């Protein structure tokens, strides 16, 4: 594919002028900008839709989805909800996913997205300032799923409040020695969820004057296997809590497995509360905080489609969907 040097030669300007023009900077006169854009179009160079003349942009009938993972439960459920809404509207989905920092940097390059999608949904990933500039600079509707912002549409839940609900249930059931299994920060992403759920947990303990034992903080990630290994180590200590709040149901499944290996019972030996309402949770009787992840995906898709249809008249849609405590059999009431 042609680059800035080839465009500059064809338009008869310097590469620096081409760079400024294609980034939409103002200190390029419109006549020169038009020459550069015409040259870029002839060379099939990707151009931001907002720089093209009216009528030059054809719809792709495709919405892009950026997700750091596709196999983890939360992301697969969100993508399934987005796909269902798009399929019903006759729109295609183009999925971008990554697990390393360099892959993230490549995906957020404008040239990867320009002219390929009519809208964009970013799942549970807070964009950096530079990434925000790039995706908003595409001139297409954008919605963030799980990340509130005042710069575009979003749909999310209140993770602090959800964790408060889970912890309050344990306190109401008489528990005071409560552990928490938290998700560690990952290099390629900057999830806020782990810190927010930990904040909600601590809020309730402080509210009731319950002193938290730092030794009761168990660090894992959001997978069942890692949680099982972390719980194996935790159970080796002499003094154990009466309950544990896991920041995801998949963590809770790992905790269940670890307790079973030790011959311990839920909830008689340790009570468990999870977060998500994974479909397997009902099978083992897990009390959890339910979030409607597929519905969140459908809402994000609807936000983008509405702005594609009539962006001039549709304001940013910013939605906070409530969570719900689902009480099952994994918490024992104690005196």
Automatic annotation (TrEMBL):
Gene3D superfamilies for this protein:
3.40.50.2300, lambda repressor-like DNA-binding domains
**What UniProt keywords apply to this chain's record, in alphabetical order?**
DNA-binding, Repressor, Transcription, Transcription regulation
Q: InterPro entries, alphabetically?
A: HTH_LacI, LacI/GalR-like_sensor, Lambda_DNA-bd_dom_sf, Peripla_BP_I
Instruction: Please give the PROSITE patterns that the UniProt record associates with this protein.
Output: HTH_LACI_1 (PS00356), HTH_LACI_2 (PS50932)
Protein name in the entry: Unannotated protein
The UniProt entry, under Pfam families, shows: LacI, Peripla_BP_3
> Which SMART domains does the UniProt record give?
HTH_LACI
Any keyword Transcription regulation? yes
Return one GO MF term. Answer: DNA-binding transcription factor activity
Q: Which part of the chain is the HTH lacI-type domain? A: 2-58
């Amino acid at each position: 594919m042609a680059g800035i040097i080839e465009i500059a030669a064809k338009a008869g300007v310097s590469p620096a002028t081409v760079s400024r023009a294609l980034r939409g900077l103002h200190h390029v006169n419109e006549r020169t900008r038009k020459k550069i854009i015409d040259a870029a179009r002839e060379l099939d160079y990707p151009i931001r839709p907002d720089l093209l003349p009216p009528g030059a942009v054809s719809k792709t009938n495709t919405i892009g989805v950026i997700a750091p993972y596709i196999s983890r439960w939360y992301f697969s459920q969100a993508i399934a909800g987005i796909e269902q809404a798009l399929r019903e509207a006759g729109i295609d989905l183009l999925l971008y996913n990554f697990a390393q920092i360099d892959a993230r940097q490549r995906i957020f390059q404008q040239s990867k997205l320009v002219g390929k999608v009519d809208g964009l949904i970013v799942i549970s990933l807070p964009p950096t300032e530079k990434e925000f500039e790039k995706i908003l600079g595409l001139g297409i509707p954008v919605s963030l799923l799980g990340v509130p912002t005042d710069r575009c549409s979003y749909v999310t839940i209140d993770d602090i409040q959800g964790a408060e609900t889970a912890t309050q249930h344990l306190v109401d059931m008489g528990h005071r020695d409560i552990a928490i299994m938290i998700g560690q920060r990952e290099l390629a992403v900057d999830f806020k969820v782990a810190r927010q759920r930990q904040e909600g947990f601590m809020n309730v303990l402080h509210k009731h004057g319950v002193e938290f034992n730092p030794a009761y903080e168990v660090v894992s990630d959001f997978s069942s296997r890692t949680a099982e290994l972390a719980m194996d180590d935790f159970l080796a200590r002499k003094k154990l809590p009466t309950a544990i709040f896991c920041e995801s149901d998949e963590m809770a499944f790992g905790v269940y497995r670890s307790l079973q290996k030790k011959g311990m019972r839920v909830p008689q030996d340790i009570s468990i509360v999870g977060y998500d309402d994974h479909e397997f949770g009902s099978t083992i009787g897990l009390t959890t905080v339910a979030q409607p992840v597929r519905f969140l995906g459908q809402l994000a898709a609807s936000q983008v489609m509405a702005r594609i249809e009539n962006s001039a008249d549709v304001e940013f849609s910013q939605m906070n969907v409530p969570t719900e405590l689902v009480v099952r059999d994994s918490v024992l009431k104690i005196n």
